[in-house]
Write a structure and sequence with these properties.
Blueprint (H helix, E strand, L loop, with lengths): L3 E7 L3 H12 L4 E5 L5 H6 L1 H18 L15 H25 L3 E4 L2 E3 L5 E3 L2 E10 L3 E3 L11 E2 L1 H5 L7 E5 L3 H13 L2 E6 L10 H14 L2 E4 L3 E6 L4 E5 L2 E5 L1 E4 L3 E3 L32 E3 L10 H15 L14 E3 L4 E6 L2 H6 L4 E7 L4 H5 L6 E7 L4 E9 L2 H13 L4 H4 L11 H9 L9
Helix pairs in contact: 1-8, 3-4, 3-6
The protein binds flavin-adenine dinucleotide.
The site of flavin-adenine dinucleotide (FAD) has 37 residues, from helix 1, strand 2, helix 2, helix 3 and helix 8.
């Protein structure tokens, strides 16, 4: 046996790095086994590179359309190499920050691939480390569509964000959060974009009204959007990719598959350690993230629920506290916000209107367009809206949906209100600073009972 630790975390992504820091804060001798870079896929290949690339798309678009705002610019152009360098730099900075946090909290980083032994310890290469508890946080890997393999001009989301050259055209398969973000960035870089979704709306997890507004803006921006059309007959010709969708033929420089992901459990040796999985391959856990092996916990993309970094982080806190025997409380799965950083942004928490209807709730809706409040016009953010879904029994907010340039920040207010069990009646009396887009939240709450000041 090499060294022994109270807690060993396998995987240093947002779930794992946060779990390790929390375990160390609770006085536990802690190690993280990470085979690649601190911060995991989120910081190095997914959320952070995607948002860095989207930020540049915003700046580019703002520069191009700034004349109407009184700023004349000439010669605005995208510098692809400089953007790629910044993308790498941002990830490197944040990954270095995670490594520094580990050092500051006296978390040992064991570099290498970790797997469980039969008795629930951790093997890395030839060494076995004894563990009081193990937290599995190895995340997920991209899945292609049936009959298609990644390679050449058929790329996954990281492939899309790290192309060597700015493509003339791309086709994106899957209009969930990642696919919509890729389409939204590339169309603003000047690439010809086709966005194809098998289901009948883009952003299928979002409220239909939100998806409708985003689709309208996407089309206005020049994205060809196709829904209800599975992609088939994919062929990489070497110079381009040909495919069919919904009876049409398509061709693009690159085909981006932004569909599903699968839990990354291949190296973990789960069966030997008696860690059970569900039918979809995810690790079965209870509300404290404990697996069927009482010594082993699992978090993040490895377990049920949406694949989101902030969900992974919170599960990391719960698992570390439970592993340390400290008081904790389970993640409330109904209060995990969704956030898509396309233009316009979409953010939501809780039930869509369709889900409220399906559940047979007696519900009401409060809705306000961002253009109705002053800030919408000042900041040129008029297209979106705030929509609240209310259970009429006690006025509980059961769903909140925002479309707009700041939606992903604004959703925090609704998550807080719902977590603190505030109803729409309280929200309708809380003062919001003027002029801010958040005033649309206030008036959406008032709109439930028909007294929004700025109702159109
Ligand atoms: C393109 C894209 C954009 C996204 N954008 C967002 C966003 O904006 N907001 C959001 O909340 N979510 C976003 N997500 C989802 C988010 O990236 C994941 O939910 C999150 O990364 C999951 O965190 P995790 O800790 O479970 O695992 P990961 O981030 O996947 O990290 C797992 C780590 O484990 C390591 N590892 C794997 N196996 C082993 C092993 N056996 N031994 C040692 N190390 C191992 C890997 O190297 C990796 O570093 C995005 C996803 C994609 C693909």
């Amino acid at each position: 046996m090499a060294e022994s630790f109270d807690v060993i975390v396998i995987g240093g992504g947002p779930g794992g790095y946060v779990a390790a820091i929390r375990a160390a804060q609770l006085g536990k001798r802690t190690a993280v086994v990470e085979k690649d870079k601190p911060g995991g896929r989120c910081l190095n290949y997914a959320c952070i590179p995607a948002k860095t690339m989207l930020h540049t798309a915003e700046i580019l678009e703002a520069a191009r359309s700034s004349e109407a705002l009184g700023v004349k610019t000439t010669g605005v152009e995208l510098d692809w190499q400089a953007l790629a360098a910044r993308r790498a730099q941002v990830s490197q900075t944040l990954s270095g920050g995670v490594q520094m946090l580990w050092e500051r909290n006296k978390v040992t980083w064991i570099e290498g691939e970790g797997s469980l032994t039969e008795d629930g310890n951790v093997r890395v290469g030839d060494e076995v480390y004894e563990a009081g508890a193990v937290i599995l946080a190895t995340g997920s890997v991209a899945l292609p569509i049936p009959g298609v393999e990644f390679g050449g001009r058929i790329v996954d989301t990281w492939g899309a964000w790290s192309l060597d050259e700015l493509p003339r055209s791309i086709a994106v398969v899957g209009a969930g959060a990642s696919g919509s973000e890729i389409a939204s960035a590339y169309v603003r870089y000047g690439t010809e974009v086709t966005l194809i979704e098998m289901l009948d709306q883009i952003l299928p997890a979002e409220d239909r009204d939100c998806a409708r507004v985003v689709e309208r803006v996407f089309k206005k921006q020049g994205i060809t959007v196709s829904t209800g059309t599975p992609v088939e007959n994919v062929e990489d010709t070497g110079d381009s990719v040909r495919f069919t969708y919904g009876g049409q033929e398509g061709e693009a420089d690159y085909l981006v598959i932004a569909g599903g992901r699968a839990p990354d459990t291949a190296a973990l040796n789960l069966e030997a350690a008696k860690v059970e999985t569900e039918e979809n391959g995810k690790i079965r856990v209870d509300e404290y993230q404990r697996t069927s092996n009482q010594k082993v916990f699992a978090i993040g993309d490895l377990v049920r629920g949406p694949a989101l970094a902030h969900k992974a982080m919170e599960e990391g806190i719960v698992a570390a506290e439970a592993a340390a025997g400290a008081p904790t409380h389970p993640v409330d799965v109904d209060l995990i916000p969704g956030a898509t950083f396309c233009h316009p942004q979409v953010a939501s928490v809780g039930l869509t209107e369709a889900q409220a209807k399906e559940k047979g709730l007696d519900y009401k809706v409060g809705r306000l367009k961002l253009g109705a409040v002053g800030a919408g016009t000042v900041y040129d953010d008029r297209d979106g809206f705030v929509k609240l879904v209310i259970d009429t029994t006690y006025g509980e907010i059961v769903g909140a949906h925002i479309v707009g340039n700041r939606a992903c920040d604004m959703i925090a207010e609704l998550v807080n209100t719902m977590a603190l069990e505030g109803g729409y009646q309280e929200l309708a009396r809380i003062i919001h600073a003027h002029p801010t887009i958040s005033e649309a939240v206030l008036d959406a709450a008032r709109a439930v009972d028909g007294w929004a000041t700025h109702a159109a």
